[in-house]
From TrEMBL:
This is UDP-N-acetylglucosamine transferase subunit ALG14. It is a single-pass membrane protein. InterPro entries: Oligosacch_biosynth_Alg14. GO terms for molecular function: N-acetylglucosaminyldiphosphodolichol N-acetylglucosaminyltransferase activity. Keywords: Endoplasmic reticulum, Membrane, Transferase, Transmembrane, Transmembrane helix. One of its GO terms (cellular component) is UDP-N-acetylglucosamine transferase complex. One of its GO terms (biological process) is dolichol-linked oligosaccharide biosynthetic process. It comes from Nyssomyia neivai. It is found in: Endoplasmic reticulum membrane. The chain crosses the membrane at residues 6-25.
Amino acid sequence: SKIMFFAWVFLAIVAFYGVGLTLSYQRKRNNSMTKRTSSARTMIVLGSGGHSTEMIEIVEKMDPLRYSPRCYVLARGDTRSSEAAKEMENKRSATNFRIVGIKRSRSLHQSFITSIFSTIWATYECLPLILTFRPELVLCNGPGTCVPICLLTFFLDGLWPWREPVRIVFIESFCRVKSLSLTGKILTWFVDLFVVQWPGLATPKTKYVGRIF
């Protein structure tokens, strides 16, 4: 019957995806100590205010040839972060970067219920961006904008188990001294490296590296 046919198709898709996600995870574990020789397509998530300032400082210290091309993702209308990224890239005469604005996942003082819908819409906008840019490294440090990007990147990675797995690195903001941010608590389960800058935040799931800035 048609119902049985579609049921088997659905199970086959789920099985294929499960195998792909497992293979991707195993490759990440096996290659965790392997030094990369080619450049990495890098997606950098910028938030407003201090989040962007911290992330720009991190990117400034990175080799622009090794982490290339770069795609900066920020909330639509965040002109300050956009200008900061352009200024930093122009200082080193870089041309291999782009800046993309997406819908903000959660605005200041927005209710939790309505933020669910705005996050879903932001995820929808991120999908074609991730599929076309195909990041090999995702860097973020706390803004809600990075939630749909990291979740999509994590789950889409299982669709292409034959490709180099994507690395997701979350750097908790320096201002988080005693507790993780809400974004950090959500993404703890999905990132490959979770960096904290204060010893009180060190756990089996995080890596304490001391002050970065």
